Amino acid sequence: METSLPILSLSAAALAGAAAAFPKIQARLALSRAKHRSLTGHSKMSKMVARMVPHYEFDIDDFFRSDGAPKDVAMQRQDGFFRLAGLYADRYPKGRALTAEVTERISDLRFTETYRVPFQYSRLVREHLGTSAFVEVSSGVTVTDLDGNVSYDLTGSYGVNIFGNDFYKECIAEGEKRAHALGPVLGPYHPIIADNVKRLCEISGLDEVSFHMSGTEAVMQAVRLARYHTKRTHLVRFAGAYHGWWGEVQPGVGNPVSPHETYTLADMSEKTLHVLRTRKDIACVLVNPLQALHPNGNAPGDSALVDSSRSSRYDRAAYTEWLKKLREVCTERGIVLIFDEVFVGFRLAAGGAQEYFGVKADMATYGKSLAGGLPVGVVCGRKDLMRRFRDDRPADICFARGTFNSHPYVMTAMDEFLSRLASPNFRSIYNGLDETWNGRATALNDRLKAQDLPVRVGNISSIWTVYYTEPSRYNWMLQYYLRAEGLALSWVGTGRLIFSLNYTDADFAEVADRFVAAAEKMKRDAWWWHQKGLTNKNIKRQILKEMVAVRFGR
Question: How confident is the model at residue 1 (pLDDT cuts 50, 70, 90)?
Fold first, then answer.
């Protein structure tokens, strides 16, 4: 009896400990199940994998036959590559020279020039297919570079350019006239801010406004306010979504520090809804509506285009249903639902993504296009969420300021933008918008299919991405053929094509002709040759073998 009592006590304590730990274990398992199975859903694992990837590059022989192509195919590719190189050298001498000069002193440019293509091919591409980073003139839907080359603008200025470059030049010019008397006086407000606030509240359907210097800053403040008012710690973001480059919303590769209060969960997942229903530490959920184009996928760029697994899966009805479910759960659990509309704001509808999908957010962030082409960030939110102090605890505040918040020139340019957006005649630009751009995408895809070209486009309205229908390691080369046909792309290449809404049918027909011509020339130069039976899985296995060989010196 004397010896059994301690044993019984220990057993009871063990059972009690297990019972106490069981809910935590269940919650942890539920969280794990709600993560997307790819590396986009596992930030720590993605960083570990990134650290293991060794650097290697192909010499001029392996560059053209890294997929096992026979000698004659490799020679076709090599001839095509150096034909393009000659064209680039002849067409862009001033732009290439200036780009080379400043790249050594502009770290941003050195990064983008290096990561236009998969790293194995980067050195030879930089040496022979260097592009110009400079343009001098914009007009209509075109831009003109230092060498006088006119190209159709598919960059969209990273989302700023919704209504056309001329529209924004007018907003900035008129805004400058109105702000000139005050000048860059910071601190006091230009009186035009009152009109801007009124319109922003009407557009967003929310109560108050906070101005910031960029979209990244706006998201930072929205998250901070959500934590302040809910007294909870964690934010939820969805796998692959981009919300700026600050640490909490960019876990994984690119961030040297691992955020500890961020849950990266699967988009459009019932398991994610279960986590939101059951956890007590979630302050807010961030939604970037652009993810509807590629749920749970990173923003596409040609630097990661190692095979043909990129896809486009936009389903407006399905994504709307998901957002409605998300709205219900957030309301039920007191979680702040934040729409990050910095990229898509006012492109899909005059009332933004909230209007387009028919779902009300608790807070919305805007940027880019809103200031008539000048840099800005805006948070709109419910009155109870926007308050930065507590009446009963005067020292307990939620601080956010910035030197250039509400800059007079930004505010007057914003008023020009919002005044035009409010005009019924101007708003007619949204009539049949999806039908127009869906029809254009379908027409281009029909041409590509009819001409047996293994490339297609997917879109959410005027935001497009390019994907490929046959396995290949060389899809990233298409960006150079497109540029040679006079199509201006951003540094992510074919991953994102952004059209301004002032593209006429005639403008688009010219772009479509040039796109098809580029794809035909790429096919002619044998970049899409592949062995029978090749799959994307085979390509990834081959790349893994190359990395293992480099790592172990074989």
Answer: very low
